[in-house]
Amino acid sequence: MNSKNPSSAPTFPSNFLWGAATAAYQIEGAHDLDGKGPSIWDMMCRKEGAVSGGVTGDVACDHYHRFKSDIAMMKEMGLKAYRFSISWPRVIPQGTGAINRKGLDFYQALVDELLDAGIQPCATLYHWDLPLHLHHQGGWMNRDIHHWFAEYADLMGRELGDRVGWWMTLNEPSVFIVAGYKDGNHAPGFKMSTTEGLRCVHHTLLAHGNGTLALRAACAQPVHIGMAPAGYAKIPDTETPENIEAARKSLFTVAGQSLWDVALWMDPVFLGKYPDEAPRVFGEKWHHPSEEDMTLIHQPLDFIGYNCYSGIRVRAGQAGLTDSQSATSLAGGGSAASAAPEDLAYPQEHPTGLLSWLMLAPEALYWKGRFYSDRYGQGKLPLVVTENGFCNLDWVGIDGCVHDGARIDYLHRYLLGFRRLAEEGYPVGGYFQWSLMDNFEWAEGYKPRFGIVHVDYATQKRTLKDSAHWYRNVIESNGANL
Ligand code: GCO
Prior knowledge:
Blueprint lengths: L16 E5 L2 H4 L12 H5 L18 H14 L4 E5 L2 H4 L9 H16 L3 E7 L5 H4 L9 H16 L5 E6 L1 H11 L10 H25 L5 E5 L4 E4 L4 H12 L9 H10 L6 H5 L8 H7 L6 E4 L3 E4 L8 H4 L37 H14 L5 E6 L16 H19 L4 E7 L18 E4 L4 E4 L1 H11 L6
Parallel strand pairs: 1-2, 1-10, 2-3, 3-4, 4-5, 6-8, 7-9, 9-10
Antiparallel strand pairs: 11-12
Helix pairs in contact: 3-5, 7-9, 8-9, 9-11, 9-13, 15-16
The site of D-gluconic acid has 13 residues, from loops.
């Protein structure tokens, strides 16, 4: 690895998955149609003050009714792959037991339509919309959830495993556990202790493991299975060996009890053990998992997926982030609250998206990919960016176009970082821009727009933003024109 040789650079492989991503609750709507059961986000949106503007995902982008024209649009954009999530309560309304044929038919039709359009379907099993019925049985606090999740994974493998070749078990487990169960700003809105939170972490990892086993067994063809974890990249401030090692250490150290640290989530999945320092860092709150549990969690995976929006610079021997900065809650990538002592603060005037956690850090895809590949893939497992994107206040201009130059600049810079991985010989499998279209941004409501397609929520009119046209050209050139 690291034999930097840009001149003869083989860049993106010919089967590279150039994609865009969405999630069921953020786009589908049809929240109670055709037998769908309620989810914890249906509940959360009805809690006074939980979601900015009091909005819900009841209709969202109405994708449930418009998926055919949405897929025609994806085809026009030249997408090679589409990452969507399956709504668990749409297919098993109570989370276990009786299935909902109409819900399954929706995903069957979606997958067929994608394949007809020449677009590779890539399915996420869990993107945060837990069946409410399971929540009432403890949800992620109940260890049985790994059986419930495996039952659901088995069903989806049998239904779609003959045509869907790429799967992700869980989207950003650290976010749905920390924001949902510890900080309380996401569904179900709990504020639990660290001890209880650690239990949820463990149950989540067990669900990933058991779900992977069940899914692989149920699919009628060999499939690619991975996860889509969150977390800030750690970027060496300058590329000296000392700073690089400081950044690596900062990325993989459990630095506090926040539960955001990536190693807490990734080490069990890829290495079969929690980070060595975890029992010391958590003290009496630690739960001492059994060997059997760790074996179940540690299933072989087919790629290293990572959601990546931002990063923190690291310099060896430097003092840490200030208190006010480390208190910032960062929905899309973890929290600087677990900052290692050598992490550096960005100055206040540093460019960000509409959401302040989204600081411009173009080297993020490169450094996260490199550190993950070295630690978890021995440089062999393909790296797949499962999410990367930018949010702004985009609007349709007087000329009928959406001029989102800042997003183009963001995507361009980040993709160059990803291309550097390929140039240095790291295996790269795909890149999913977040998001295909503007959608329901969880507790932030509809104001931050992440799409490369603009959605007018009053009329459901879609307008390709300048970035969608730009991305089509990138895809057409297989990244050569970056
Ligand atoms: C996440 C989720 C997405 C978000 C996106 C922007 O990362 O929080 O995967 O559902 O919409 O990341 O915050």
